[in-house]
């Protein structure tokens, strides 16, 4: 039986590390290999709650699903959740440890490295193969000292490294060569080969470049993965929103089309909540940042936020707050999820999440609720019902919401008129509830839209994971990949001349 481990690194953020890792996990799992994903350190505002109440990066939960295994905190032992440009919450083995700036985090590095390596050791003991994902780029040379996610991890655990480059961005060969050349010799010795991602065109036209990069680096290209339309999986950060499709099932704009505008607040979190809406034929989902973009929306969604108070201030500065108040006065649908729900409340008292902002601020006042932030974080997998249908979800929050006034209960939140608020993430992934909610929204908005009766979001996610497994099976040298996992980095890989480091 295949045994070993591998690190998937990338030339940049959003090069495709997460999806390549998921694809390798799905491909191996299909071969009967017990495989687990792993990311030592993840910086992301998209997170997930495991069955035992631990918070991890949502991408690792998606990769665990690709591997047909239950997500665990060992798969992402260190999670950083930015609350501002300078400070992040450090989540260790699924529980918040502290809010730190960059220098304070550096002081934790030795302790965190040991925790990360212990998690990897446990996974390697429990599974045949562990497919590790790097963070950002391994050639962030200013951060190499103390690195625990890329070459620091690879060196400590003796992991062979595949580097993924995004050809759609341009400059992929320079990025691949530079990734190797900027590393010190001991790191270069583990860079075993390359994967080119998001290729569109004739492979024969690319072949001379593949031959040249082999000659220039002495490393193999393990595969060229073609561009795959309609692929949208749980991503790590809002950078990927710039390339996000408007929906998975576009129809001509008309009375049968439901338009959803999602407010892209600066510290947006868990925007993957909206993926299920985009999977519905006839639903167009757009992320917006200005009041004018709300004009034709049938539903406006205020998503989660890691900095509720400061993002609420941003709504006011941009004029979006006034636009939302006008919508509510006109009885036009608004949905707030977690932080978005808190912004819709009457008041927010926060000395925990946004320490550099006023302790007490008025909310938008669209729901009869008040919010107090507590030091302890609520992490759970709640279940309930709405519109007569069962709903399973997850929650990640410091805010405790108290509802006092005239409002209907709604998924641990409330509804007043055409404004809904809930603390639960993932509720829209429940098919029957989603259809009933969208039908209600369409009725209020005066649209003829009718949800498709057969859209199964879980099945759609599985289809996309299978498509990733197919990409690996069809477009990577899987025999060479298996040898790399089992035997490690090839011996005597050439060392490129140092590039001034």
UniProtKB/TrEMBL annotation:
GO terms for molecular function: ABC-type vitamin B12 transporter activity; catalytic activity. GO terms for biological process: cobalamin biosynthetic process. The keyword Phosphoprotein does not apply. Coiled coil: none annotated. Residues 259-432 form the CobB/CobQ-like glutamine amidotransferase domain. Keywords: Cobalamin biosynthesis, Glutamine amidotransferase. The active site is at residues 338, 425. Gene3D superfamilies: 3.40.50.880, P-loop containing nucleotide triphosphate hydrolases (3.40.50.300). Residues 7-231 form the CobQ/CobB/MinD/ParA nucleotide binding domain. It comes from the Bacteria. Pathway: Cofactor biosynthesis; adenosylcobalamin biosynthesis. Signal peptide: none annotated. Belongs to the CobB/CobQ family. CobQ subfamily. Catalyzes amidations at positions B, D, E, and G on adenosylcobyrinic A,C-diamide. NH(2) groups are provided by glutamine, and one molecule of ATP is hydrogenolyzed for each amidation. This is Cobyric acid synthase. It comes from Sinosporangium siamense. The gene is cobQ.
């Amino acid at each position: 039986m295949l045994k070993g481990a591998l690190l998937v690194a990338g030339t940049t953020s959003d090069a495709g590390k997460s999806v390549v890792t998921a694809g390798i996990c799905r491909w191996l799992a299909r071969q009967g290999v017990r495989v687990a994903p792993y990311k030592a350190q993840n910086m992301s505002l998209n997170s997930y709650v495991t069955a035992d109440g631990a918070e991890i990066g949502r991408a690792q939960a998606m990769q665990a699903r690709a591997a047909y295994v239950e997500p665990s905190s060992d798969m992402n032992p260190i999670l950083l959740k930015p609350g501002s440009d300078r400070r992040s919450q450090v989540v260790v083995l699924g529980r918040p440890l502290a809010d730190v700036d960059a220098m304070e985090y550096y002081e934790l590095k030795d302790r965190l490295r040991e925790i990360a390596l212990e998690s990897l050791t446990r996974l390697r003991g429990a599974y045949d193969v562990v497919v590790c994902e790097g963070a950002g780029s391994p050639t962030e040379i200013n951060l190499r000292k103390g690195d625990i996610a890329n070459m620091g991890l690879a060196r400590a655990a003796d992991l062979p490294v595949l580097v993924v480059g995004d050809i759609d961005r341009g400059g992929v060969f320079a990025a691949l060569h530079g990734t190797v050349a900027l590393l010190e010799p001991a790191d270069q010795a583990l860079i075993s080969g390359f994967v080119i991602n998001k290729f569109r065109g004739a492979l024969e036209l690319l072949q001379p470049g593949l031959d040249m990069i082999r000659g220039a680096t002495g490393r193999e290209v393990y595969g060229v993965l073609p561009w795959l339309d309609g692929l949208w999986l749980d991503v790590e950060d809002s950078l990927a929103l710039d390339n996000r499709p408007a929906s998975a099932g576009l129809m001509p704009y008309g009375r049968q089309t439901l338009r959803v505008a999602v407010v892209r607040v600066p510290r947006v979190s868990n925007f993957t909540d909206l993926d299920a809406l985009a999977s519905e034929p006839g639903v167009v989902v757009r992320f917006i940042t200005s009041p004018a973009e709300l004009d034709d929306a049938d539903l406006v969604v205020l998503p989660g936020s890691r900095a509720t108070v400061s993002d609420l201030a941003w709504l006011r500065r941009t004029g979006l707050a006034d636009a939302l108040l006008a919508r509510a006065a006109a009885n036009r649908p608004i949905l707030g999820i977690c932080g978005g729900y808190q912004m819709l409340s009457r008041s927010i008292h926060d000395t925990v999440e946004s320490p550099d902002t006023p302790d007490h601020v008025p909310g938008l006042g669209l729901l009869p609720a008040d919010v107090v932030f507590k030091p302890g974080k609520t992490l759970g997998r709640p279940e309930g019902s709405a519109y007569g249908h069962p709903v399973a979800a997850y929650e990640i929050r410091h805010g405790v919401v108290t509802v006092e006034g005239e409002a209907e209960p709604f998924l641990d939140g409330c509804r007043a008129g055409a404004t809904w608020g809930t603390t639960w993430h993932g509720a829209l992934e429940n098919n029957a509830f989603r259809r009933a909610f969208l039908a209600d929204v369409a009725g209020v908005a005066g649209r003829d839209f009718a949800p498709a009766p057969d859209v199964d979001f879980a099945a759609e996610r599985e289809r996309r994971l299978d498509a990733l497994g197919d990409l690996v099976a069809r477009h990577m040298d899987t025999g060479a990949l298996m040898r790399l996992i089992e035997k490690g980095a090839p011996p005597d890989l050439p060392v490129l001349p140092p590039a001034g480091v």
